[in-house]
Amino acid sequence: MKTKVSVSILTLFRDGVEKVEAGVKSIEDCADYIHFDIMDGKFVPPTTIGPKETRMVKTRLPKDVHLMVEEPMQLIDDYIGAGAKSITVHVEACTDVRKTLAYIRKKGASPAISLKPKTPLSAILPYLDMVGMVLVMSVEPGWPRQKFMPEVLEKVAELRKLKPKLDIEIDGGINDETARLAVKSGANVIVSGSFIFDSGNPKKAVSLLKECK
Description:
Blueprint: E1 4-8, H1 17-27, E2 33-39, H2 51-56, E3 63-68, H3 76-81, E4 84-90, H4 97-106, E5 110-115, E6 133-137, H5 153-162, E7 167-171, H6 176-185, E8 189-192, H7 194-197, H8 202-210
Parallel strand pairs: 1-2, 1-8, 2-3, 3-4, 4-5, 5-6, 6-7, 7-8
């Protein structure tokens, strides 16, 4: 499968709107998605950006929104309104996973489901036919610049065997080396932020990730 890159822009928000705009512009003609990490301070400790900031980002790339929040159902309308084309919710965070995924699709976005590194793959198996993508976390969600957890690659490989055509996204501690391991295991959508924007050449960094096989 073709390797796609979803560029995380969360760290850019620390330096203001101009930094965000410049960062998005620098990768817009080579990336596949813009990735938005949304945290509520409950499901994970930090509190980050919300619908207002998501809406503020102007881009022709699809907005890939990752909701690391408790009971995400109550926020879906807000993020659809902010331009989300894909919305990922955590299996650990939903009282009614099936209802939440169905509502995302009903509102016009592609539903996706995520699981933490220690959550077994069996937790999401009942919902695979409802989603366009599975996000496998390769760090504990909530904090940037964590070390990649290679043990999650077993889940990626098993999931790829079960669903040969499914988009499998991986997020956490991603650089050109860990991305290569993930792609070999079966991931085809790579989320990266720090590696790309700390590189000094974001476009080249995205290209390196897309070349991983």
